[in-house]
Every structure is written in C-alpha cells, then in structure tokens.
Amino acid sequence: xxxxxxxxxxxxxxxxxxxxxxxxxxxxxxxxxxxxxxxxxxxxxxxxxxxxxxxxxxxxxxxxxxxxxxxxxxxxxxxxxxxxxxxxxxxxxxxxxxxxxxxxxxxxxxxxxxxxxxxxxxxxxxxxxxxxxxxxxxxxxxxxxxxxxxxxxxxxxxxxxxxxxxxxxxxxxxxxxxxxxxxxxxxxxxxxxxxxxxxxxxxxxxxxxxxxxxxxxxxxxxxxxxxxxxxxx
Length: 233
Description:
Oligomer: single chain
Helix content: 25-40%
CATH topology: Rossmann fold
Structural class: alpha/beta
CATH superfamily: P-loop containing nucleotide triphosphate hydrolases
CATH class: Alpha Beta
Largest sheet: 6 strands, mixed
Strand content: 25-35%
Strand order of the largest sheet: 6-7-8-3-9-10
C-alpha cells in the first residue's frame, strides 16, 4: 500500500492558456502551491485573477497547458479522462456556489450520489447519508427536495454530498456566495469544525476576505500569478 503523501495538493509551474481563434489569454502563469493534509486554505483575488481556473485544474475539471498536479501524491495532470475520473471520485469532493443538487431527488438521495458508483450496498449508503445529514443538523429534512430547503440547508446538503465518500480534498468555489451573512458564518464554522475534528483538507475560493481569514492560510492571486501568501493560524 502506498504511503499517504504529506500534501493533499502539490502543483508546480501551472500555466493555463485559453485560445479562441487568434485570441490568446493566459489565465494562469506559473503557479506553484502546496497544501498539506488537514490544512484549510483560502484563495482570494479580483474577478478574472485565475482563482477559479486554479481550482478547476486542481479538481481535474480542466487540463493545464503546462505544469504538474499531484493529488495526495498521485501525478494527475496527464492522466486520461477515465483515470482522472477515478481519482476525482475517490480523492476529491466539490462544493459549488449554486449547490448543484438534483431537484427531483430528496436530500438523502442527493447525498448518496457519490457512493452509487462505488458499489456500496444501498442500506449502508442510506445509513451513512442519514449520519452525515444528522451531523449538520438536518435530521428532519431527509426527504425534503432542494426546493423545500433554505439556501443554507441546501449548502449543508451539498457539503454532506462532498464529504460522504471520504475524499482527501474538498474544493469549494464561492460556497457562501448565495447565502446571507449569518448563514455564511454558520457554514464557515461548520467547515472549520469538520476540518478540526475529521482532519479534512479544504481549498476554498472566496471573494469574502473576512471569511477567508477563518482559514489557516490565504493565497492571494492576481493576473494569473500568486501575489503573496498569509499564514493566519
């Protein structure tokens, strides 16, 4: 069995160039970043700075023009789509600003989705999903559909879905962007508790500097490059 890497994320000299006809746009220009297992890192920067592009590359949703990406010690940047999908399903959980819940499914069905391909028995999936939702205060909402939940409740369901397969890494893209200030604070407190008690690794893109400061470290990106880093705690 391979020994687990010290780093959940290790990227070096990442370059991402988008082309449309004769137009060439460099979204990332030589980014290198390491995130230790159990660390919570916020990525901040102005619109168009490259922060979401970096998150998409780490999450294997896009392929770099140049550079290397290691997830939990596995070099993933040049894997074919099938093998990338396997790594993504086993190692990475995603939480999005728009939740990306399936509206025809109940909360408990949405949470179970990442486990269906794993071959886990349905009764075991169900019990695990119940445990996850109960842990975030949604024990009375198992059978509600997303449209019957508040924005904060939908985001908690999305967080449970991201965590249920026990990924090495959870990626969040503006996950408090669609909720009010009070709910934003509650969601960050939930993530901090998960990080503290379960040792989960988080990389969170946010425009909210106040919430970003709840992480262990802030990485500031501008014009496709890391401008500076700030260690907080």
